[in-house]
């Protein structure tokens, strides 16, 4: 099941503000998390004010809430974490894209994404992720004949986890 809406408002011919909401219900045959609901809110600004330069800036907030069913014994470490792919979390994402065409034979695109995910309800296991990605695309040539394209990207990922260290039982 899924539902959503989006809206666009144009300040003028070259500047737009977009936004929306999406809801997705995920049913799965998994005892520990039979159901999840994803709620995505987003806002984007687009500028195409120049003939050879355009840009987009987008902010997204994604919230996942799962019906987590933990059948582990309370004295077990498994009682204090959930698999990160079904875990409840809040994600904050910012994306920036700039496209430049200085000449009909040239194209340069630059993109960046910053993502921060905070997992909920875990004492142990994954608690937080941070990601940064940067992309560069450069093309030269006639798009109707031969075009040579170079693509480069760089990124970092940081996964934070909680571990049981010391005396048992857990808190």
Architecture overview:
By secondary structure, this protein is mainly beta. The chain is built from no helices and eight strands. The chain has an eight-stranded antiparallel sheet, with no helix packed on it. Strand 1 and strand 2 form a beta hairpin. The chain is elongated, with a radius of gyration of 22 Å.
Order of helices and strands: EEEEEEEE
Binned strand content: over 45%
Major sheet summary line? 8 strands, antiparallel
Widest beta sheet: strand line-up: 1-2-3-4-5-6-7-8
Radius of gyration: 22 Å
In which range does the helix fraction lie?
A: under 10%
Shape: elongated
Q: CA-to-CA gap between the ends?
A: 38 Å
How many β strands by DSSP?
8
Could you give a short description of this structure?
The protein is mostly beta strands and 171 residues long. Helix content is 0%, strand content 67%.
What is the element layout, followed by pairings?
Blueprint: E1 2-10, E2 15-27, E3 35-50, E4 53-66, E5 89-103, E6 106-119, E7 125-141, E8 147-162
Antiparallel strand pairs: 1-2, 2-3, 3-4, 4-5, 5-6, 6-7, 7-8
Fill in the keyword field for this structure.
171 residues; mainly beta; eight-stranded antiparallel β-sheet; 8 strands; elongated
